[in-house]
Write a structure and sequence with these properties.
The complex is a heterodimer of chains A (289) and B (136). Chain A has 289 residues and is an alpha/beta fold. In chain A, 62% of the residues lie in helices and 15% in strands. Chain A has helices at 4-59, 91-105, 119-124, 143-158, 192-201, 212-288, and strands at residues 75-81, 110-116, 130-134, 164-174, 177-186, 207-209. Chain A has a five-stranded mixed sheet with strand order 3-2-1-4-5, sandwiched between helices. In chain A, β4 and β5 form a beta hairpin. In chain B, α1 (91-105) runs antiparallel to α2. Classes of the chains: A alpha/beta (289), B alpha+beta (136). β6 (207-209) of chain A pairs parallel with β5 (42-46) of chain B, so a sheet runs across the interface.
């Protein structure tokens, strides 16, 4: 049976943990705020850009770009965007799960994984063909740093080393929700059905200046870059959100634990006092008797 | 008078969303174009320069650098790499940036091609900022 001293110690340490988790929650909340502003600011830009390219490439007859070319190569590269730090709930394990599922679904492809963030790498690197890990100078990556990584991957695609480029990341939905997904980056695809839909939606064509081909030539790499950048920012925002949540839960659990332990300790203390009282009373009675 | 809507997005954030306006002057890669209500559908590359927007509430100015402009029905969507409002410009900084870039480009020291391009762009941006700030 636990004695009062042990319980006291336990309560003290739980209170210490509570302080840490509370502080971590506050830090994550502040970081999430910043990351959220960044991703929500970028999203309209990237969606507009993407839809423009989709529309123009559907309207322009027989346009072809290297980024659209389907290669006869079953090698593929997967960029996994995870976190460097733990204590963020199911953030990394859910992504790992999504990747495992993806791997089973695409067994005919020779997948090679490259990493941003080491947590998912540590989880699954033994099961897969693991490649290099990219790191950033600061925790928050800059546009330039992301561009370097994106360029490296697109370069491998363009010179035919790999046939496909995927990215696996957690997409930010809200502070308490994210969605783990694997998305194909290259070759870019516009399904025939969507093409038809776009064509029926725009019975007229745009007036282009310069030509549609020239615009697409500059836009397509831009879309690819922006998509990669969006994915990275998405992952960062959901990491902070996920950590905030995890820490909130941890704080809640700590509080409950302290309550439970205090109750137990008080009960023990009362029992001890009662026994002492009985001893004193019965001692006095035996003297009187 | 009929009006149309303007959206101005950059990777850093949404600058303008659904702003009612009736006259826009946009710098494109081949000179400025003026957009009025019921403009034809166009898709064009943006140049670096000043954008003037006339709204019922008054005239506003923005700087834009390379990007894309799409005019569709009654919406003008501008996707620019960077964009600033006149109120956001720090005049002192722009001036010192201009002085620095002019100094580097003055030919005192030899510059590599990459640097030359970089400082030319810097000078261009600084001049644009000063022009924008003067319109305030």
């Amino acid at each position: 049976m636990a004695n009062i001293k042990d319980l006291k110690k336990k309560i003290k340490s739980t209170k210490g943990t509570l302080k840490i988790t509370k502080a971590m929650k506050l830090v994550s909340a502040a970081k999430l705020n910043k990351a959220q502003i960044r991703i929500l600011g970028l999203r309209p830009y990237s969606t507009e850009l993407e839809s423009t390219v989709r529309t123009v490439s559907a309207l322009a007859q027989n346009y072809s770009n290297n980024y659209f070319q389907v290669k006869n190569n079953n090698k593929a590269i997967v960029l996994v965007v995870s976190s460097d730090k733990g204590l963020c709930g199911g953030y990394n394990s859910q992504l790992a799960k999504a990747i495992r599922k993806f791997k089973v679904e695409n067994q005919d492809e020779d997948l090679k994984f490259v990493w941003i963030g080491k947590k998912v790498r540590d989880l699954i690197s033994k099961e897969v063909n693991a490649g290099q890990t990219y790191t950033f100078a600061k925790i928050e990556p800059t546009y330039e740093e992301v561009r370097k990584i994106a360029d490296e991957l697109s370069h491998q695609f363009l010179n035919g080393e790999v046939g496909k480029v995927y990215v696996a990341y957690n997409s930010f939905i809200s502070a308490i929700a994210f969605d783990s997904k694997v998305r194909q980056l290259l070759p870019m695809q516009v399904a025939e059905k969507t093409k038809e839909e776009i064509k029926s939606k725009y019975p007229y064509d745009f007036k282009y200046d310069p030509s549609a081909e020239t615009i697409l030539d500059t836009l397509v790499p831009e879309v690819y870059l922006t998509t990669v950048y969006t994915c990275v920012l998405d992952a960062i925002a959901s990491e902070h959100g996920s950590r905030m949540n995890a820490m909130e839960n941890a704080s809640k659990n700590s509080k409950e634990m302290v309550k439970k332990l205090s109750l137990k300790m008080n009960k023990l203390r009362q029992a001890k006092i009662t026994t002492e009282l009985i001893e004193v009373v019965s001692g006095a009675e035996s003297l009187n008797g | 008078m009929s009006a149309f809507k303007l959206n101005l997005f950059t990777p850093k954030g949404v600058v303008v969303k659904d702003l009612e306006c009736n006259d826009i002057v946009i710098p494109t890669c081949r000179g400025e174009i003026n957009i009025l209500p019921d403009h034809t559908h166009i898709l064009t590359e943006l140049g670096t320069g000043l954008m003037t927007v006339k709204t019922p509430m008054g005239t506003r100015h923005y700087s834009v650098t390379a990007g894309l402009c799409r005019v569709l029905k009654d919406t003008v969507t501008i996707l620019s790499f960077t964009s600033e409002k006149a109120e956001e410009i720090d005049m002192e900084r722009a001036k010192s940036a201009k002085a620095k870039a002019t100094d580097r480009l003055s030919g005192k020291e030899s510059l590599s091609d990459v640097d030359l391009l970089k400082f030319r762009r810097k000078l261009e941006r600084a001049e644009l900022r000063i022009r924008l700030a003067n319109l305030k």
